[in-house]
Amino acid sequence: MIRSFFALLLTCLGGASWSAEPVYGGDLNVGTVHITLSPLSWDPADWTWKSNHDHGSAREQLFAGDLTKSKRNGGPYSFIADAYLPTDSMRGELAEHWYWEDPLTLVVKLRTGVIFPTKLGVMEARELVADDVVYSYDLVNESPKRIATYFDHIKRVEARDDHTVVFHLRHFNAEWPYRFGYGYYSGISPREMSQVDRKSWKNVTGTGPFQLERYVQANAHIYRKNEQYWDRISLGQESYPLPFVERVIYRIIKDEATYLTALRTGQLDILEAIRWIAVDHLKKTTPELRWNRYLATGGQFISLRVDQKPFDDIRVRRAMNLAVNQQEIVDHFYGGHAELMAYPQHPEFGEYFEPIEAMPDSVQELFTHDPEEARRLLDEAGVPEGFSFDLQVCSCSPSHMDLVPLLESYFAQVGLKTNIQTMEYASFLSTMTTKTHGPAYLMTSGHTNPMTTIRKSFVSGQTWNPSQYSDPEFDEKVRVLHETRDEQERIKILRNLTREILEQAPYVWLPIPYVHTAWWPWVKNYGGELRAGAVRPWPIYARLWIDHELKEQMGFD
Asked: Structural domain tally of the chain?
């Protein structure tokens, strides 16, 4: 339906509030941060990083982000980081409260009355109990696909009674809330999952606000409201049961022009990640949209395999960095909508982050453009003019596909020939996790949180260490970091580790772009928040509602 001029005028003048109170029902159509990507697996034991995005609607966690402390609600937190909840921004989700019984014993009290709904072919409705948490932990901990060292700090997990879970630690780990509290691999499933095919989407279930109703391969996931959901929200003087919307529909759209059109025509209520290049046009053609701008939460780089020649030579790696005109990429490729250096630490990590001007000269040099020095270093390392190398890139990233020709030209200026290998996402990721990827690998990897970004990317043998960087002394410093209880001391250690890894240049460090989220004004109780745990937006979606009257007045059914 064509929007009326009257509705457009009202919206442009500030957006009439057509529903003062929350409204139940309707569909929420979302183009997520990962709109181009299909689910990787429905089985928690497969250790897929995107699982909370895909089935975190059903599988809740012990902890989640406290959205009452969002900036939109007058708090200090944006809830943009892909897996970082500062202590004060965290609330209990399935955990009602928790305490340290002694320095190595964490006691978690579960909420009572939380129900797993009936799931055909899986289970009858019943209450969540501590044995489900133990089962969920054992499921991922005993998986052959588990990330090395991830749960090494946990000796065992026990159910003391039906609503008490006890974590017995071998040693303290400063990431304990993240590792099995709100992290990538800490969703809680019922014990009945042990009797069914966990890889089938039809068997996904949990205590969360939505249940996965249907999955259409490479097209959409459809989630329906859990009528037995336990949580509520206080708005003003009233308390309301959650969730508000009847369904959440994730659209999987690989083509950028198509998903931008879907937003513009109201087929998407929210599009969470929009490149800067499309923003001005959308603001002109669709001025009713609401906006939030944020610095991307994934590091962007070319990983250089340090276990293969010639990238085992630091002179070559530094030369590769000097060959790339980082500032030109910021100014022209991103139109100024990027930061020269914002990885491996992110500015939203507070004191853990140090800006480039605070870095040593040896680090700052890597972000300058000096092709003559690059060629000198290559000559010194014995790399001849015309040396060629393979650069693998994922076709799932429009930005990377556009960036590759520019990178190719920079390397050509210092006598290097780049062989571009384009891959579909599943193959692209599989080569990295199985360590069969090429010598140069253009990727985006989540900042995660201040400590994990260093551990997962640069500690020996880690799954998400694409450069194969390995230094026993560095590994030991990371171990000490995680066992340090005092946060100010951790900040000091982590700053030094960040400087060290930047200087070693296992990657060609690339600028980090700003990204935009857009939504229609009929989406209420929303301010562009993206995550309330590790890649987990579901507590956010549960609190949104659709102003159906406003949507109709604006010319949409």
From this structure: 2
- Among left, alpha and beta (phi > 0; psi -120 to 50; other), residue 71 is alpha
Residues 220, 177 share a domain: yes
- The rounded distance, in Å, linking the Cα atoms of 318 and 363 is 10
Could you tell me the pTM of the whole model? 0.92
Q: Which of 194, 136, 189 is nearest to 167 (CA)?
A: 136
Q: How far apart, in Å, are the Cα atoms of 92 and each of 96, 182, 229, 235, 498?
A: 5, 10, 15, 19, 31
For 164-230, list the strands marked E by DSSP. Answer: 164-169, 210-216, 220-225
CATH of the domain at 231: 3.40.190.10
Same domain as 478, residue 414:
yes
Domain limits for position 347: 298-513
Q: Which two tokens stand for residue 342?
A: 């914002």
Does residue 251 sit in the same domain as residue 137?
Answer: yes
93: buried, middle or exposed (CB in 10 Å: 19+, 13-18, 0-12)? buried
Residues 110 and 235 in one domain: yes
Q: How far apart are alpha carbons 479 and 502 in whole angstroms?
A: 19
Q: Which residues in the chain come in under a pLDDT of 50?
A: 1-19
Please write the tens of the pLDDT for every residue from 497-524: 999 999 999 999 999 999 999 999 999 9
177 and 285 belong to one structural domain: yes
CB within 8 Å of 372: residues ≥ 6 apart: none
**pLDDT attached to residue 557:** 75
Q: Does 548 lie in the same domain as 426?
A: no
Q: Tokens 């390392």 identify what position? A: 381
